[in-house]
Each structure stands twice: as C-alpha cells, then as structure tokens.
Design goal:
The chain has about 300 residues and is of the alpha+beta class. The chain contains eight helices and 17 strands.
C-alpha cells in the first residue's frame, strides 16, 4: 500500500512516497537526514555551511567534504553542458535582485532596490575543484549558488538511498523536483504537473506517469517579489545578470535523472522559441507553457494528458 509524508526542508516542501506503508517512517527519517546533509554542505543562506565558507574565502583554496565536492562537480557539468546557461556563478546576481536570504524572508520585505551586476556565463570556468584532494577555490569576486542543481541531486540521492535501504519503490519530491527509484507501483508513479508544487492535488493540470528517472519543473510564476524595477523572480539569466525575461513561464522535463531533468528544464526556460526543438534533438520529453498560456510539447510528452 502506497504511503507518503511531507515536511518543510531546504526552503520548500519535501515529500517521500513509498510503495510499502510499513517503510514510511524509516523513509522519512532517511530523507530528513539526507536533506540535513545537503543543507549543511550546500546552503547559500547558512553562514556555517561549507559553501558559505568557500564563498567567504573566494580566491583561496579551501578543503571541502565529499558531498559539496559532488554537488559542485554536478553544477560545473551543468554549466559545461549548457554553455554557461545553467551556471552556479549567479550568486551575486540573485542577491542583487533581492534573493539574498531564504525565500520566506524575501517575501516579508515590502520592496527591494535592484543593484546592477555583470553577466556571468563564463565565470564558472574559473572554479577550481580538485576531487582527489577535496579542495575548492571559488573565483575571486564570485559567489557560488548551487540552487539550480543541488536540490535535484538531493532528490536523486535520497530516492536511491531510500529504495536501497527499505526495498520496494520510492519517490522523492523537493519543491516539484521529483526522483524515483526501486520498483514502481503497478501502473507507475502518477505525477500532477503544476506551476506551483504546493497546488492542491485536485487543482487544474495534467498528470503523467513515470516509472524511472526524474521529472522537474522550472517556473517564473511562484518565487516572485517586489522591487523598484517591478516584480522579480528567482531564475537569473547569466547573460544579463538579471531575472530572466523569457517567453516561457513554466517548463517541465522528464529525463534519466532529476538532475538531468532540472538542468534541461532550466536551460529550456532560458531559451527562445526553439527550445522545444532543441529538447527534441536531445531525445528528451518536455511540456512548455508560454507567457500567454499556450502549451507546447517536445519528445514523447503525452499531450493527451492535458485532457485528463
């Protein structure tokens, strides 16, 4: 019998679903422990995190643990694969736009004065990560933000760990970034697609079924706040150093892992009208919602789900 549990973590809603209800409490404990590890290593908002220490020592080499090393490696790989479109060096731009603290605190501010920042599409190439020595050097004047990949990596790691320890199948959702592992329930995992991961289960939107891999949604509609330049959101275009002006308001992608899905979804959101065709060329499946509400598809995304 399928069972689920949810709680707040990493500034979002963490949900674990297992195919054996008897394993739920253990699965929840494992997920909470994994997310604590990621928070201690990768948080941009905790002054005592490993990432904050590395950012505070930008220009100098610091020793880091294996989890931050792995998360940084994934972030660099994402930047390389997208030619800097999905990059961990947008930290200063996020802070300048107003996302300089947890989103709960950002929402409490009445307004924010936006500061100009330089584009950062190439800065990731100056990151020096030595996996063998366990060291990291953040480029001088830069600040790493792993939000584009670390949450998805946490979902992948946690779902695999849960399925490996308790058996059966496991689904982990972190703010809508979804990873599944182990044996899926009969008929597969049914996932509702929405702009906001906190939308009620009976709200409008299509449902899709997945059996392996990951599903991620990137959207400009939810994490928004007021600035002296109007509304801002949390997805920064590294080519401009500002919250992205994009023709897509929401992009969902299914891929072999949650990391792959999230990187592809974010890159597509930051791309133009040819984004669905590019996703097609890569053999990935995606759903695009334009800023006018029109829906487009890529790959084998089940368009018929819209009527479900």
């Amino acid at each position: 019998m399928i069972a689920s549990a949810s709680f707040r973590s990493l500034g979002t809603t963490a949900t674990v679903v297992v195919t054996d209800a008897r394993a739920l409490e253990e699965a929840r404990r494992i997920l909470a422990g994994e997310l604590d590890r990621f928070d201690e290593a990768c948080s941009r908002f905790r002054t005592d995190s490993e990432l904050s220490r590395a950012n505070a020592n930008a220009g100098h080499t610091v020793e880091i643990g294996p989890l931050l090393a792995r998360a940084t490696e994934v972030a660099i790989a994402a930047a390389r694969a997208t030619r800097g479109l999905v990059t961990p060096t947008v930290g200063p731009a996020l802070a300048a736009a107003g996302y300089d603290r947890t989103f709960e605190l950002v929402r409490q501010r009445r307004t924010w004065t936006v500061r100009a920042t330089a584009p950062s599409t190439d800065a990731w190439q100056e990151i020096r990560l030595d996996l063998a020595q366990g060291t990291l050097r953040v480029p001088r004047g830069a600040e790493l933000d792993l939000g584009a990949t670390a949450k998805a990596l946490a979902a992948d790691c946690a779902s695999a760990t849960i399925a490996g320890r308790v058996g059966g199948g496991a689904l982990v959702s972190l703010g809508g970034d979804i990873a599944v592992a182990g044996d899926p329930p009969r008929g597969g995992w049914v996932v509702r697609i929405a702009d906001d991961h906190e939308a009620p289960l009976d709200s409008a939107g299509p449902s899709v079924v997945i059996g392996t891999g990951g599903l991620a949604t990137s959207s400009t509609t939810v994490r928004r706040w007021t600035t002296d330049h109007g509304e801002a959101h949390h997805i920064v275009d590294p080519r401009t150093g500002r919250p992205a002006a994009t023709r897509w308001r929401t992009v969902s992608v299914y891929a072999a892992s949650c990391v792959d899905a999230n990187v592809a979804a974010l890159a597509a959101l930051l791309s133009g009208s040819d984004a669905p065709a590019r996703l097609d060329e890569r053999g990935l499946h995606g759903r695009f919602v334009g800023d006018d509400g029109t829906v487009s598809y890529a790959g084998g995304w089940p368009a018929g789900a819209e009527a479900a």
